[in-house]
């Protein structure tokens, strides 16, 4: 089998050499020959094997490099085991003599622990996710073990057989646990994902009770590694997850001194999962940054139970900027500055950096154009050369870009419902389908429902209101209700399957460590910096959307139900407006008639002839017609006035009268000027005559006054003369 899984390959190597070394164990037939001939042959074979061992011990190589060489010193094809007759058949380091059961048991226990440690390294390193074929590889190893168990089930002594079977059963147990883990990952987090998948196998753990205590402790460590990996994939905000991880750390605490290289990695990973759990819990559930825990009678702070490590510094910063301080744009800009500088060539970016850019252009500096360019680049990525797990992660990253692009577009207030429908269908087409992504349904329904509610509320025209309500009600019944059902199904699926909205590839999910005593140079955290789901938040968002859906639907239904009443009300309003308009028109007409009469009577005294009378009547009539049209434009609207033909006729007549009146007035004005001029001349002559007469009469009056004065003077003279005579 040519599979590149370093630690699993080492397990296979150990198994092959262990199986080969069993040849030195004495068989039952060696002590209980059935015939003399068989006894002689058996004796000869035993002597031959003894000679082989003796010769091998003389040439034993003392330089041992790995624990494999503790039990064996040779590798060759298992088909050649029965053909070993002499020392000349051996190639390579010699075998040990396992006639002694105590030596064989001790070596088997050491080798069993070595195999378990390799399985621990395999799971922690995530080697089975970086390349496909792990399940087939482990299945082949399991079948090989089954064949060996059958072969050695009858011809080994009972005490040797027990040791061999304990070794094989332990390896089978580890293979089964590892197989189940990888199978779970592939079924739920790969391109071969399958929804309705059930595992009905039962684990046979009864043999564990008969194992050596050291082997039992090693299996406990392996169980912790396996369980912690499942917690990584299924981490939730439930308090039980916190207690479960704490229990795993307690197990490691008691066994850490036995396997420090493995338990150190377990502590790093477990504490980081607790850190993520705490960040999600304090952000979405608790109003406090910390909370208290009681262990026995001791009450301590939660933070005292989390030991942060520098190996997660980059991810811790990412969590703080993306989740905790998501509204602090200035700090996020500083955090994303290095990634923004590399944006010119998207091919140089890691998926971790794509996540940073998407967040930046969605929330910090919104740009539909930038998000669309990132989305287009991710959609055209070729993932054929990646493993199925990595292909799944890349498809999830693409879906994440689609979600954020659609979310940003729906924030555009000018986006219409029709445009949103087209955009929604297009984005649904972008989705890979590897997971049931409910985010698009959530954002789509929220935008649509808000838009419908706003349009219905702001519409003042009853006819348009009825049309819109009927149209939108049909859409809700036939289209949007199905989207809501789809939202419900995908929401439930996503939570049950722990469908993360973002997952780094296996290579980018590795955390480097520097521990010379550990064979691992890195370990995997499947969910990387992504915080666990908050079920309450998911349910709350769905409940709000469903409630809004019901409210809008009820509002539209009420409007449609009141259609007849609204039509009657609208007709009554129109009738009322019509009567009011008629009243105004009647009043206007009477006002025009009265004005015509009142203005005509006094004005006729200035009319000298029949032509002037006709002209005067036409001018008054055109003025009244224009007055009536103005009244109609106010009561019926300027556009409605000219809908009827009679109003056009009236308008044309008024215009005709106005034109005739205009030219007549000009002619009248010209003649009037001449008349005025002649009248003025005549008046001047008459004035002269009158002035002459006035002067003549004044002269006569002066003459009369002078004569009277003379008479008076004469009288005075006579009176004065009489007085003198008397004296």
UniProtKB/TrEMBL annotation:
Region spans: Disordered: 29-48, 704-727
Keywords associated with the record: Membrane, Transmembrane, Transmembrane helix
Chain intervals with Basic and acidic residues compositional bias: 710-727
Transmembrane segments: 586-604, 610-635, 647-665
Stated name of the protein: Uncharacterized protein
Species of origin: Sphingobacterium alimentarium
């Amino acid at each position: 089998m040519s599979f590149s899984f370093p630690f699993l390959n080492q397990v296979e190597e150990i198994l092959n050499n262990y199986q080969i070394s069993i040849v030195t164990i004495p068989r039952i037939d060696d002590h209980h020959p059935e015939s003399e001939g068989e006894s002689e042959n058996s004796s000869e074979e035993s002597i031959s094997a003894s000679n082989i061992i003796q010769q091998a011990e003389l040439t034993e190589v003392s330089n041992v490099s790995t624990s494999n060489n503790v039990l064996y010193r040779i590798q060759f094809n298992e088909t050649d085991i029965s053909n070993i007759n002499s020392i000349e058949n051996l190639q390579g380091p010699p075998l040990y003599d396992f006639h002694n059961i105590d030596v064989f048991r001790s070596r088997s226990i050491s080798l069993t622990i070595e195999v378990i440690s390799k399985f621990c390294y395999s799971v922690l390193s995530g080697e089975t996710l970086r390349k496909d074929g792990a399940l087939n590889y482990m299945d082949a190893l399991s079948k090989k073990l089954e064949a060996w168990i059958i072969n050695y089930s009858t011809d080994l002594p009972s005490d040797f057989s027990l040791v061999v079977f304990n070794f094989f059963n332990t390896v089978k147990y580890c293979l089964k646990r590892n197989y189940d883990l990888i199978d779970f990952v592939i079924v739920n987090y790969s391109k071969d994902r399958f929804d309705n998948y059930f595992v009905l196998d039962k684990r046979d753990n009864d043999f564990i009770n008969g194992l050596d205590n050291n082997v039992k402790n090693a299996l406990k460590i392996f169980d912790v590694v396996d369980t912690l990996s499942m917690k990584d994939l299924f981490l939730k905000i439930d308090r039980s997850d916190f207690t479960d991880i704490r229990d795993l750390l307690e197990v490691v605490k008691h066994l850490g001194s036995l396997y420090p290289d493995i338990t150190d990695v377990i502590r790093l990973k477990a504490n980081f999962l607790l850190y993520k759990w705490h960040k999600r819990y304090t952000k979405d559930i608790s109003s406090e940054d910390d909370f208290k825990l009681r262990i026995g009678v001791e009450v301590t702070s939660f933070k005292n139970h989390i030991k942060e490590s520098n190996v997660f510094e980059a991810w811790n910063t990412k969590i703080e900027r993306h989740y905790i301080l998501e509204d602090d744009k200035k700090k996020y800009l500083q955090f994303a500055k290095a990634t923004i500088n590399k944006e010119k060539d998207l091919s140089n970016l890691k998926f971790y950096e794509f996540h940073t850019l998407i967040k930046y252009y969605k929330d910090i500096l919104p740009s539909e154009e930038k998000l669309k360019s990132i989305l287009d680049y991710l959609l055209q990525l070729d993932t054929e050369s990646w493993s199925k797990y990595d292909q799944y992660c890349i498809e999830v990253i693409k879906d994440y870009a689609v979600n954020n692009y659609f979310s940003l577009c729906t924030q555009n207030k000018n986006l219409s419902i029709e445009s949103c429908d087209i955009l929604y269908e297009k984005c649904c087409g972008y989705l890979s389908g590897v997971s049931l992504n409910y985010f698009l349904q959530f954002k789509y329904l929220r935008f649509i429902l808000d838009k419908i509610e706003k349009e219905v509320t702001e519409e003042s025209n009853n006819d348009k209101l009825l049309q819109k309500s009927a149209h939108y009600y049909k859409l809700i019944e036939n289209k949007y209700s199905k989207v809501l059902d789809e939202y419900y199904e995908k929401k439930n699926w996503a939570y049950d399957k722990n469908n993360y909205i973002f997952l780094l590839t296996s290579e980018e999910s590795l955390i480097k460590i520097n521990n010379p005593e550990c064979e691992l140079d890195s370990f995997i955290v499947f969910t990387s910096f992504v915080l666990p789901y908050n079920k309450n938040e998911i349910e709350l968002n769905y409940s709000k959307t469903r409630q809004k859906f019901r409210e809008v639907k009820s509002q539209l239904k009420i409007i449609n139900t009141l259609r007849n009443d609204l039509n009657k009300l609208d007709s009554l309003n129109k009738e009322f407006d019509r009567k009011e308009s008629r009243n105004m028109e009647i009043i206007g007409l009477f006002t025009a008639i009265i004005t015509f009469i009142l203005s005509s009577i006094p004005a006729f005294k200035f009319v000298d002839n029949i032509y002037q009378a006709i002209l005067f009547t036409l001018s008054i009539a055109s003025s009244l017609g224009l007055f009536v049209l103005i009244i109609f434009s106010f009561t019926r609207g300027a556009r409605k006035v000219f809908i009827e033909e009679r109003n056009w006729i009236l308008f044309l007549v008024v215009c005709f009268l106005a034109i005739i009146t205009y030219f007549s007035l000009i002619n009248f004005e010209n003649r009037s000027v001449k008349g005025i001029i002649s009248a003025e001349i005549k008046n001047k002559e008459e004035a002269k005559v009158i002035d002459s007469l006035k002067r003549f009469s004044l002269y006569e009056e002066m003459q009369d006054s002078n004569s009277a004065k003379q008479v008076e003077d004469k009288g005075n003279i006579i009176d004065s003369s009489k007085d003198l005579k008397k004296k």
